[in-house]
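ESCALATION

Customer reports they have been waiting on this structure for their group meeting. Please prioritize. Original submission:
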Amino acid sequence: MKSAGIMFAGTVVAKVIGILAEILIPRALAPAVYGRLGLAYGIVGAVSSLAILGVPNGVTRFLSEKESAHESSDVLQSGYAISLAGAVISAVVIYLARFEIAALMGDPEVAPLLVAFVPYLLAFPIVKVSVGVLRAEERTTAATLAQQIGPRIIGLALVAGLITAGQPVVG
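Update from on-call: job pushed to the front of the queue and completed.
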């Protein structure tokens, strides 16, 4: 029951932070810029979800079943290697196809934004595998912080800092 409460509280806090972001960010950006950012983020988000290849769930399941440290180490190495390979391949594809994707979307200004989201594309699978490890170890608080709260706080702080610095398009 304690784990469910932690997950619930984490989800509520994450939703509140998300609502704050949805209030602040659109007001700081021109509608066209906000739309482009949303489009670029949506494309990269979809690709990153495909790039993980279901590995985080597999890592959680296999780590829960493994008894020896050697087997766990093998699962971790394989999980991170496969996730990193998927992330790198996806990042290269997005980078090389950025102009074609932008043309397909009918907005050439989307291309540089796709490149700006490449670090997210590289980090997402690694973070998901790490959260899978925390879940397998039944570290609910750490998993909730890493998956629900941390990314939103970091993202909101980054965007707020860039908006304050007068560089909202970069954020």
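Sent to customer with the following note: Residues 21 and 156 are 6 Å apart (CA to CA).
Escalation resolved.
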